[in-house]
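Hello Y.,

Per our agreement to keep a running log of every chain we model this quarter, I'm adding this entry. I've kept the format consistent with earlier entries: sequence first, then predicted structure.
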Amino acid sequence: MYQTILYEVKNAVATITLNRPEVGNAFAKESYVEVRQALEAASEDSDVRVVVITGNGKHFSAGGDIRRFKNLITSGAFLQTENVMAAGQMAAKIKTCNKPVIAMVNGAAAGAGCSLALACDFRVVTPKSKLVMSFVKMGLSGDTGGMYYLEKLVGVGRATELIMTGTPVNGTRAYELGLANRLADEERLKEETYAFAQELAKAPTFALARQKQLLMETFYAELAEYTEREAAYMVECSHTHDFAEAVDAFLEKRQPNFLGK
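Predicted structure for the entry above:
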């Protein structure tokens, strides 16, 4: 059914696993649709009371697929509004999912991968987990709602620093900053995540759904408008020299030489 993710329901918990480990679970175009479809399936399934999102292999998600970016630049297509919007809509679906959603952050969550984790209701990390808003390192403004969710968690000041510097935050620091809700030992990440999921699964599911709806209506009411602006700015950035230079530098394993244009 799915090409880029795995979906499993067990003990009232639906697990969505990003499944492109050969590229660090970087997103393909299909990923945005499939994650959204899986979240919709979990919302509609009365046997599901909690959702866990994670990545197959060493990392949660590397975010954008840099080789795909290179192909888009070479072809002159650059980033397309509909694809950037699809990424934002994928993350927004977490907020409208009527079940609690936990990000089990194994390894790195970078760029859009970090944004996806931040969109979740809860994050479980280890000291070796890494959250990084790496968009600026690629000459991009950011997508998948990352800045929006980041500000809700840590405030404008800290969000500005993290988005504009692209500074990686390890799991311990993420927990200290309030970016993560649980800090688990590396070997106990899965155990502690699913123990937390079972705790939530025993709660009154309808009440949790109404709490999520109230949170969405009160604190995330401007999300749709933000997603449109975010997509427009990302498309603009994809036409710049600095985006092309960042892609080339990544593929050539060197430091980029940004010219500011």
